[in-house]
Amino acid sequence: MRAISNDKVNNIYSLLRSKKSNSKVAKQVGVSRTTVQKYRSSLKMSRNVDEGGRPSLISQRMVNYIWRLVTLGRKNNAVEIQKALKEEFGISLSDSTVRRVLKKAGFIAFVKPQKPLLRSQNIMKRLQWAKSHQHWTVNDWKRVIFSDETKVNRFASDGKAYAWKLPHEELNSRHVQQTVKHGGGNIMVWSCLTWEGVGWIVDVGHRMNSEGYLEVLKDDLLKTMESYGLDSSKVVFQQDNDPKHTSKVVKEWIDQQPFEALKWPPQSPDLNPIEHMWAHLKRELFHSYEAPPTSMHELWERIGQTWYAISKEECQKYIESMPKRCAAVIKAKGRWTKY
User: Fold this and answer.
1) Which of 36, 66, 224, 273 suits a disulfide with 199, CB 3.0-4.6 Å?
2) 101 and 194 assigned to the same domain
3) Where is the Tc1-like transposase DDE domain (predicted)?
4) Same domain for 137 and 73?
5) Structural domain includes residue 72
6) What is the residue range of 101's domain?
7) How far apart are alpha carbons 285 and 183 in whole angstroms?
C-alpha cells in the first residue's frame, strides 16, 4: 500500500466513524476503495481490541502503527511487531496479544512458500509467455513432456517461515521466501512427466555437466517415449533454462530430433506440473516409512518404488491444470502464483 499523508489518514478515519461507505470515503479523500477498506479493517482492529472489561493498552496510534508494519512489509510476525512496539512506544505486550490483534483485524498467518527470485525482466518474460500460451487447450498440453531435476534428502528438512497477510491479498515479495536455484545425505535425480504417466527416473549426481545431461536425454527421455509408445514427431519437450540444458551440445542434439522444444520462461517452476510430482514424491518418502533410510542405496530404492507408483490419473490431473497456471500468471502480472 502506497503511503498517504497523515491528514488523509485522519480524514479517512473521521469519515468511516461517521458511517460513510467505502465508495464515498474514497471519492471524498481521493484514494482507492481498496485503501479505504484497509483503514476500515484497521479501525475494526482498534474497536475489537478495546472490547472487554479491562481497559486496552493498545491505542489507535499503535493500531495504525501495527497495520503499517504488516501491510508495508516491514515486519513479518508477532515477535518482530512486539519488539517494534517496545522500541516505538515503550510498551511491552506479549506476542500472543499481538497475534490476537492481527487476527481480529482479518490478517491470517501462513507459511511463507519458497519462490524464485524474480527480477523485472523475468516478470515480463513470464507474463509474455503466459499470454502467448493462454489459448492452449488441455489437448495441446497433452503433447508436452515436462522435465526437471530435484534433490531428495535422506532426512526431511522443513525450513518453514511464517508471515501475516489479508485473505484477499495476492502473494508479493513480503509473503514469500525468495530462493536462488540449487542454493550429505541427498540424491539429485532427473525425470519427466507425460500424459501417460511418469518418466524414467535417474540419479544424475551433483556435478552433472552438459555432456552428462545429453546422455540422460539420449537414454532416459527416449526410453520414456518408447515405453509409452509416443510418436516423437508429435511430442513437445519442456526443460528449464539451466545452463546445462541450453548448452550448444544439447541444443544441437535437440534440433536434430523430430520432437519440438518448448521455449520456457525464466524462474518459472510454478508453471511446471512436475514440481507437484516432486512434492508428492518427497511427501510419500517422508510419510510412508517409519524411519529414514539407513543408506543412500536404500534411499534410491525408495525413490524408485515411490516414483513409479504414481498413477497415470495423478499425472493427468496436474497437466490439466496448465491453462489455469497460465491464467494465474497473467492475473499476477508475471509475479508469483499459488502453484
Assistant:
1) 224
2) no
3) 143-287
4) no
5) yes
6) 6-106
7) 22
Residue 98 and residue 138 in one domain: no
In a domain, 166, yes or no: no
In this structure, are 138 and 56 located in the same domain?
no
Tens place of pLDDT per residue across the chain (339 aa): 556 777 787 778 778 877 888 889 989 998 988 888 877 876 665 555 444 444 456 777 787 788 788 877 777 778 888 888 888 888 888 878 888 877 777 777 766 666 667 889 999 999 999 999 999 999 999 999 999 999 999 886 544 555 656 666 666 665 565 544 433 489 999 999 999 999 999 999 888 999 999 999 999 999 999 999 999 999 999 999 999 999 999 999 999 999 999 999 999 999 999 999 999 999 999 888 888 898 999 999 999 999 999 999 999 999 999 999 999 999 999 998 888
Cell output for 300: 534410491
Distance CA(70)–CA(62), nearest Å, equals 12
**In this structure, are 240 and 137 located in the same domain?**
yes
Residue 89 lies in a domain: yes
Same domain for 73 and 123, yes or no, is: no
DSSP string, 97-111: HHHHHHHHTT-EEEE
- Residue 116, amino acid: P
The answer as to whether 336 is a domain residue is: no
Same domain, 100 and 221: no
Question: CA–CA separation, 137 vs 147, rounded Å?
Answer: 20
Query: What is the C-alpha separation between 252 and 68, in angstroms, rounded?
Result: 54
Give the integer Cα–Cα distance in Å for 316 and 139.
11
The DSSP result for 189-255, as a single string, is EEEEEETTEE---EE--SS--HHHHHHHIIIIIHHHHHHTT--GGG-EEE----TTTTSHHHHHHHH
Q: Give the dihedral sign, CA 298/304/309/313.
A: positive
**Phi, psi for residue 276 in degrees, rounded to 5:** -70, -30
Q: Is 52 left (phi over 0), alpha (psi -120 to 50) or beta?
A: left
Number of domains in the chain: 2
